[in-house]
């Protein structure tokens, strides 16, 4: 008797199994929207697929007379630039501090508690502080993303490096490696797949912090646009924007997986 835990679908089977719930959800939505509009053609809660397509085309292919730009492209570029800068800052700081904490117990004893304290502070709660200290420009939004995910990534990387077999460090020291060489040549290569995995898991919270910052203080961006049109109950714009954000997140996740597989094929299960 084959147990469920031993059933491993093929790549094609995984694709079909994953696509079926999405197709069903889309069909259910299309039917529900059609039924609502049959009763009330002016309904805004569940816009039809055609209405959402027309609104998305208008946002993507019509120049805004105020800004002189294509709205969807401008919002996407602004958000991706903020997100990329925040992720880069968080990744770099987590890489350096996580490696330091993982390799050196003394550094872990000194810096570990403050990293833990920062990690438990809700990032959204410090957003007003960032706006006061850094202003309403790009710096505060980028800082929120970095502060929101860097502590988690740092703790994850430090824990991973600290859990590496002690024999590896002992052998390197026996061969004459100093602390810097042990960190760079022994710990860092093994930490890189974990860094990418940690970054993948942080993408969701990073999007949340980005949208929150854009909703409060911005004049362009995906989050800004969603919260701008909500006052008009423009669900025909909000839902496509949410779907577009989801698609961007999926593409980013797939790209990170590809980088991990190509760059660190030896990592095996750690990079999946």
Low-confidence stretches: none
Query: CATH topology, what is it called?
Result: MetI-like fold
- Determine the fraction of residues in helical runs and give it as a percent range: over 70%
Strand proportion:
under 5%
Largest sheet: none
Q: Supply Rg.
A: 23 Å
Please state the average pLDDT score.
88
Order of helices and strands: HHHHHHHHHH
Helix and strand composition category: mainly alpha
CATH class assignment: Mainly Alpha
CATH H level, superfamily name: MetI-like
CATH architecture field: Orthogonal Bundle
The total domain count is 1
Query: How far do the termini sit from each other?
Result: 29 Å
Task: List the total number of helices.
Answer: 10
What does the oligomeric state look like here? single chain
**Overall 3D shape:** globular
Number of strands: 0
Describe this structure in words.
By secondary structure, this protein is an all-alpha fold. It has a single domain (45-60, 70-271), classed as Orthogonal Bundle (MetI-like fold), CATH 1.10.3720. Helices cover 76% and strands 0% of the residues. The protein is built from 10 helices and no strands. It has helices at 11-39, 49-61, 71-103, 105-120, 127-134, 138-162, 166-174, 179-216, 222-229, 235-263. Helix 9 (222-229) runs antiparallel to helix 10.
